[in-house]
Amino acid sequence: MAQDQYQTVKEVADRLTVAEATVYHGIKAGQLHAIDICKGWRIADADLNEFLRRHQTAPRQRGDGPSTFVAKGKP
Questions:
Q1: Which of 15, 24, 36, 42 is the most buried (most CB within 10 A)?
Q2: Single pTM value for the model
Q3: Is 29 helix (H, G, I), strand (E, B) or coil?
Q4: Residue ranges of the chain with pLDDT lower than 70?
């Protein structure tokens, strides 16, 4: 069994290019699992990967939406 690596809130925020407050919000809302240790919150790689998996969008299926971009206005 592989041992998880843990990242700080700042490291996760930098990795996802979001504000640290966004990561804290995800933790507080229960969307992102984290552990609180004396030096602050830590997020396990497995928990971050699960969070990202749950929030990914489904790939576009063939036939969904227009096949080409059509600009409105003058031709």
A1: 42
A2: 0.71
A3: coil
A4: 1-2, 63-75
